[in-house]
Each structure stands twice: as C-alpha cells, then as structure tokens.
Amino acid sequence: MAELTTLARPYAKAAFEFAKGANALGNWAEMLSVAAAVSQSDTVAKVLASPTLTAAQKGETFVDVCGDAINDKGQNFIRNLAANKRLGLLPQISDLYEQFKAQLEQSVEVDVASAFELSETTLDKLAQALKTNLGREVKVQGSVDSSLIGGVVIRAGDTVIDESIKGRLAKLAEAMNA
Q1: Residue from 111, 80, 99 nearest 29 by CA
Q2: Gene3D superfamilies, from UniProt (predicted)?
Q3: Each residue of 132-169: pLDDT tens digit?
Q4: With a threshold of 0.90, does the pTM exceed it?
C-alpha cells in the first residue's frame, strides 16, 4: 500500500497543482473520483490487464468509459497515466488529491462512530469543539457502530479518539494482562 501511495503521489501533486492554478479544485476532485470508481470496476480492470491492448488504446478506452464526466484536461491526464502504465493508481491518486485539497482549504473530514444515532445538534456541537481543537474547518460524518456498546470513536485524519465502552474495556483488559 505504501508503495502504491509513493507511486501515486507525483501524479496527485501534479493534478492538484494544475487544478489549483486553474481554480478548478472541485471539478478535478469530481473527475478523479469518477476515474477512481471506473478503474475499480471489474470489467475495466480486465480491459486494463489485457496484454493485447497498447497503452494508448487502454487510455482511449478508459476515457470513452468515463465519457463527459472528465473534461479535456482530465482526459489528457488519463492518457498520460495510461502511457506510464499507472491507471491502476487512480484510487490512490484521488485519495491523495483530496488530502492536498483539504490541507489547502484548512479542513478535515471527521468520522464519528457511535453506538446509536447522534442528533444533528450533538454533531454540530462536536464539530465546533473539534474546529477549535484542531484549528481547521471540520466536516462531520456520523455513523452507527453497535459493536461499540456506548460512547464514540472519532477519526480525524490520523488522529483517533476512542471514548467508547468497547475501547475502555479493551484498555482495561490490556492493563489487567500486563
């Protein structure tokens, strides 16, 4: 996985810098998301793995599948990836691009998993507290994980705050076994 990320980083950075210069960060995010989804399709994966097609043919086929979802500059980017045999990196490129975009926008996406559905007001209060704590704009996504028993697990990038009963029980069991 780390190797794929290393290979994808220059392409993601190039797409990000181009999109930033063209004031089209959102548009490129959408195009890369579509391209990543297309690259993970079983049918497309078979076509990309075909030894009978040249890199140019694979690139054109990929562009045709994406259709109008990708503009001319995006199509050139896809053709460049195909020429360098890097179409399989599109999911990683899209993820890295989103990270670069979030860093520029001083925002972070936060996933809040709880044992039960949290109200919008609770999520808003949590978002405000995290905004103050992290010093960034926060986009909160709530989800339900009944295995937590109670409490919440908050994931913001590489930061994980586990205030769940399941997490506390695991810490207790670890301390007892030490």
Answers
A1: 99
A2: N-terminal domain of the delta subunit of the F1F0-ATP synthase
A3: 887 888 888 889 988 888 888 988 877 888 888 888 88
A4: no
